[in-house]
Specification:
six-stranded mixed β-sheet; 6 strands; 19% strand; binds adenosine-5'-diphosphate; Macro_dom
Length: 170
C-alpha cells in the first residue's frame, strides 16, 4: 500500500484528518506550542482523556519516543495521537527517539484504523531541534515506515519551516 506524503503550511488545529498528532510533553497535561493550541481548540475533553490516561496506564506520564491516542474533542479529527519528542542535545544523538515518535504515532494510527494523519514538526519548537535535521528525520522515518496510513500530512506552522520541509523532500 502506498502512503502519500503532503506538506502544507498552517495551523494543525485547523486541519481535517482522521488523526492529528500532538507534540506533547511527558506529563500529557498540556503545554505550549502545538500542545497548547490543540487543547485550546479541541476543548476540555482532550485534557480529561489525558488525565484518565495518567490515572490508569500512564501514571508516570508518557516516555519520550512513545505515542498514545485520545479523543480529538472539538477538532475536525477522530483522534489526537500524543507523542513526546526528545529535547535537542548538541552532545548526545537523540535522533532515534525523534524517529520513534513518527513511527510509534503511525503504529497507533494503524491500530486505530486511521487513514489520514497530520503531523507537526515534532521537537522543532520549544525542544530546540534544528528544522532541517528534524525535517530529514521526519521524512525518512515516514518514507520507510510500514503502515496502512494513506496520507501523511506535515503541517508546518510558518513559511520558513514549510520551505525547509520542501527542500528536504527533494
Ligand atoms: P516541541 O516541544 O516538540 O518542540 P512545539 O509545539 O514547541 O513542540 O513546536 C513544534 C513545532 O510546531 C514548531 O516547529 C512550531 O513552530 C510548530 N507549531 C506551533 N504551533 C503550531 C500549530 N498550531 N500548528 C502547527 N505547528 C505548530
Amino acid at each position: 500500500m502506498t502512503t502519500t506524503l503532503t506538506l502544507v503550511q498552517g495551523d494543525i488545529t485547523r486541519q481535517s484528518a482522521d488523526a492529528i498528532v500532538n507534540a506533547a510533553n511527558s506529563s500529557l497535561l498540556g503545554g505550549g506550542g502545538v500542545d497548547g493550541a490543540i487543547h485550546r481548540r479541541g476543548g476540555p475533553e482532550i485534557l480529561a482523556a489525558c488525565r484518565a490516561l495518567r490515572a490508569s496506564h500512564y501514571g508516570k506520564g508518557l516516555a519520550t519516543g512513545q505515542a498514545v491516542a485520545t479523543t480529538a474533542g472539538a477538532l475536525d479529527a477522530r483522534w489526537v495521537i500524543h507523542t513526546v519528542g526528545p529535547v535537542w542535545s548538541a552532545t548526545e544523538d537523540r535522533s532515534a527517539l525523534l524517529s520513534s515518535c513518527y513511527r510509534e504515532s503511525l503504529r497507533i494510527a494503524d491500530e486505530l484504523g486511521a487513514r489520514t494523519v497530520a503531523f507537526p514538526a515534532i521537537s522543532t519548537g520549544v525542544y530546540g531541534w534544528p528544522m532541517d535535521d528534524g525535517a530529514r528525520i521526519a521524512l525518512d522515518t515516514v518514507r520507510t515506515a510500514r503502515t496502512a496510513v494513506r496520507e501523511v500530512r506535515f503541517v508546518l506552522f510558518d513559511d520558513a519551516a514549510h520551505r525547509v520541509f520542501e527542500a528536504a523532500m527533494g
